[in-house]
Amino acid sequence: MKNLMKLAFAFLVLLFVACSEDSSSVAKPSLEAGSVAFTGWVVDSLDEKSNTIFVSPSKGDESIVVENLDALGGASIYLAANADMVDPDIDWDSPVEKGLEISLADTNSFSIVVLDEQNRTIAVWLVKYLKPETPSSSSDKSSSSVASSSSETGKVESSSSDEKKSSSSEKSSSSEASSSSELESSSSEIESSSSVEESSSSEAESSSSVEESSSSVEIVPTKVSEISIPGAKVTVEGAKIFIDAPYELDLTKLPLVADGKPFDVTRPVEMELENEEGEIVTYSVVAGTQLPGSDFSARNDFWGTTSDAMAISGSGSYKVPVLGFTVDVSMKSDSANAYFRDGKMTLITQTVIGHSTGFDGGWKMAGGFYFAGSYSGVDGASLYQADNSDAGADNRAADFSQYMTHGKPFTARPTGFEITYSYDHKDNTNDTYPQSCLIYVALVSADNKVVAAGYINDSGSVESETKNVVLTYGNDAGLLSAGFVGTTDLKQGSGDEDVASIRVMFASSTLAYVADGGSSSQMKKHFRGAEGAKLIVDDFKLLY
After folding, report:
1. pLDDT, tens digit (0-9, with 9 covering 90-100), for 343-368
2. Residues 333, 336, 338, CA angle at the centre, nearest 5°?
3. Do residue 338 and residue 484 come from a single domain?
4. Which residue segment(s) compose the domain that 417 sits in?
5. What is the DSSP letter of 168?
6. Does residue 483 share a domain with residue 345?
């Protein structure tokens, strides 16, 4: 009886989780018949749309032998030590290779993990099938067997037997399976139908009932109305469900339904759900988030700025031109250069002037910078001297971007960004570094590859207007070659990498993160920014 309980029907449910962090990511393979094979099991059909490979046993072994898994890609494959489809434990002692025999005696499923050359997870596959249930003379046992299957496959329900009596051939198979003499004389028929060990008519009826009940076991789709995330807004548009989630939520493990099962929704997830009309529809579920403080109603710690340091006096050294000796000098701007009022942020390019006994000296010019990240400069001296004694307070350039830390954690994949802004352009006299404003967004992988990017870089005044900027995946849109602040440590990605962080920059003077300066007689000669250049940002949001 134990052997017979393992043969009624089988199916395999497949889930794909992309976890690569660089361009070695392997795209979902195009499966063809014969590209995945197990000895003793037949691959009946391949349904790439639902990521399902349907298989059935060709004989009654209590094991399955790996024959060919090349189509799954990767550098190596291992058995998973648990059933976690998002972050599985890998059984490093069990590499999955041709000829590996996996016992099915005590389980109806097993997971395999596909890894790249650096042993990073590319995909997780769940091999799952339902064992055939032995029919019993009691309806209670029949119910119990279905419940057992339910506990292993999730929420299930059984349709009425009338719905499943669709052909005379099914009835014939059931009646044939009720005879123990026929069982002994035709093993092939026994393996392909529900079987019993005793020949009473009551057991035959029970067999038919179990066959029909088992074949009707199916996953019950969740209703669209049950998709609910605390603090998030759920929007349904046609066959797309968009979850506007709070920034703090982990989009790689978002519980979409009441049972708490986590889904990685950083990329679209296909789900069969029941709509308001009771129809089963395949929806593409996508989640995204907006950045904290992107309404600019007030300063937010998600963002870093050079403005705080500008307005604080700090001591530095001033190298007197021609004479070459240095004097101590205090350096500060007249005020900060980032302002928040009426839901708008204003960034202004300003000078910092060094003050010493009897004279002023060491003018430097820098733009207003507000960016996703942090800034460790504490005063005017550290900002414009940038710990460089040769730069000091004289006319040499000081690169204060060394105090900037760029990027904040982020995993979503927006298609672009929308921004309402205006820009008041002022000319400078530096032909090598012309004045312009800057707004950019870069999605970055864990190994500092640009997954997607887009930017605005205006060299002339802009009246208040709203622009939509597309983020191009697998293309930096020219961001890396432009020499913008916060991009020099990045390299081009393929666009398939997982997003790990986001970089956003707002600047009133694009290249004035290097603060050039000079004495009173040449203060306008080297400036990379123009005094009074102004960028006003009214609203900013990511598009999905």
Report:
1. 999 999 998 777 666 666 667 888 99
2. 140
3. yes
4. 303-543
5. H
6. yes
